[in-house]
Amino acid sequence: MKKIIFILLIGSFSLVAYIVPKQMFYTVPKSWPKPKYDFSKNPLTAEKIELGRALFYDPILSIDNTISCTSCHSQFTAFTHVDHPLSHGIEGKMGTRNSPALINLAWHSLYMWDGAINHLDMQSLAPITHPDEMGSTLEGVMRKLQKSPVYRKLFYKAYGDSTITGQYTLQALSQFMLTLVSSNSKYDSVMAKKAKFTLQEENGYKLFQKNCSSCHTEPLFSDYQFKNNGLPVDPLLKDYGRMKLTKNPQDSLKFKVPTLRNIEFSYPYMHDGRFKRLSDVLTHYAMGIQHSNTLAPELQKPVVLNSVEREELIAFLKTLTDKTFLFNPKFSYPKEVLTK
Asked: Is the pLDDT of residue 4 over 60?
């Protein structure tokens, strides 16, 4: 078979992948670690990504056709939501946590704030079946998709089979989410020696390396571990994090460390969306940390910054904004498919 070269655009970088005849090979940004996701078990193709993108934006996944993945994961806000602290679902129901930003998911090994899902291919099943989110069943979604001429065509293109299955649906959603790679911020340009920080940003970077980098490790800006960052328990939600899943007291108040990439646009912050501004987050680490037996070792001492240092650190954090990611048409609503 003829080898075809496929160009995958992530941000403004051209990443070359080869298709034989359709398969795409995931290209890792230079100097990044190897992804955790096993692509051999769900090989990327342009057709599967197209299908996953359509499913991601289609409210057909919810029981009443009102909620799509993008209802809580909007591209322009780094694939999270900003209009309320907690996720909202069908019939105006409210969830118990803020939606995580969907960025660089191939490098995760566990998903959700508490690590309840251990594989990206199963991640979408959680919101689809949660009664306060999409409130549906995988069987119910399959029945609706099977009735759609558009989806029968898309599944045939992707899998050579117009029979729609739950496995194909979940894997296609994974395929699209795997393409949500953010690696083209000013920070990345500086690291590639194609740009320079301002003096304020440079000072902020030094502050970041001193105070933040042990948890928000470069270049992904998270170590993806579960840590207690000293947040007092919300008296209404009473969310103790990973302990709810593991039943281990040592996991009390531990939540997954989020990435700081595109943090300027992914507010509100923390697992329950309690902070609206980056300055609120810095105030927490300066004077709001609640000590307990499971508090992260890195936070045993408060992170106290003066007003100039706070501005410098925030200036650096804004260099992690990747506008080519936020406005990449390859990640946007697929009107060419869903409006047919």
From this structure: no
For tokens 């925030």, the residue is 314
Res. 13: pLDDT tops 80:
no
Beta-sheet strands, E only, within the chain:
4-10, 13-19, 23-24, 44-45, 226-227, 255-256
Is the domain of 281 the same as that of 334? Answer: no
Which burial class, exposed, middle or buried, applies to 2 when counting CB atoms under 10 A from its CB (0-12, 13-18, 19+)?
A: exposed
**Is 0.85 topped by the overall pTM?**
yes
Q: Which domain covers residue 283, as residue numbers?
A: 186-321
Task: Determine the number of helices (DSSP H) and then strands (DSSP E) in the chain.
Answer: 13, 6
Helices 46-57, 166-178: axis angle to 10 degrees equals: 100
For residue 8, being part of any structural domain is answered with no
Partners of residue 17 on adjacent β-strands:
6
**In the structure, what pLDDT confidence band is assigned to residue 19 with cuts at 50, 70 and 90?**
very low
What would you measure as the largest C-alpha separation in the chain, in angstroms?
64
Q: Give the dihedral sign, CA 88/89/92/94.
A: negative
Spatial contact of 204 and 317, defined as CB atoms under 8 Å apart: yes
